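If your schedule permits, I should be very grateful for your opinion on a structural question. What I wish to show you is a protein chain and, alongside it, a tokenised description of its three-dimensional fold. Would you kindly read the sequence against the tokens and tell me how you understand this chain to fold? Here, with my thanks, is the record as I have it:

===
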Amino acid sequence: MRTFNNGDWQRQDLMRLILGLFLVYMLLFWVTNWVLWFTKLSFDPAVVASYYRGDPTSEFGAPPRPVAAMAESSHMHLFAMGMLLLTLTHLVIFLPLPMRVKGTLVVGTFATALLEQGSGWLIRFGGAGFAWLKIGSFVALQVVLLGLVAALLVGILRPMPAESAERATPRALVRERRV
């Protein structure tokens, strides 16, 4: 962390490279989120509801999602998404944005992720009417993730001038004045 905050100018390019490559991975993650969504679900609430609640009227009577499968999926996603969102939102703190915007991004990111994860449980045990929440929270999470990645990419590609950077701004996001 100290290197991130206080690295000299020679490390800036390497830090930008590391952050940039992380964001490439994030973009690939974002694309695969959409691929996975459309291989199992759609924006039709009836399709989303039947995925979680089952469809006894189908030809072979699709059963509801098993609780064990949902718990296993939640177990992995809660940890992995928590770590991912911690990393992304931590980086956003260092962007030259007003604190209110940063706070909104952080809370919005975690809230949409929790809603997206929890809405499957609500559909399964609370009713098919929560399918709209699943669709809305998925789309909202994808918008927030793409926004965070875009903001961080801008921060890396167009670092702020050193004279306008706050003391806590990582050197990787600061353009040193060349003499």
